[in-house]
Design goal:
124 residues; 0% strand; globular
Amino acid sequence: MNTTNKLLDKYRQVCLLKSDNAAAIALGIERATVSGWRHGKSKPEADTVAKMATAINEPVGPWLAQIESERARTPAAAKVWLRLAATLGTALAVAVIALPSHAATITRTAADDCLLCQIIVSVG
């Protein structure tokens, strides 16, 4: 499974979205766009990756770097993105260990984002 599908599945699960269509509505994009991701025809833009990562309470950097590595046109470019993803993941682990007092704030923010997803879907 590619990184985009992993992120999309996690986003749907955390935000309690029952379908890709519901995810598309919550993200403010067309259903066909999500279908393109699912079938490997396209990748999400950085701002959409940021919306999903924020909603699932995860940093944008590692997700974005991993997705960009899959979008890369050459093995050398993919390698650069993968190194960045690894570096960002390591930096996050250090930050979480060093700053545990922020965990409650981050968790609360993610819950609020998911509630927003639920409201958008129920209204839409």
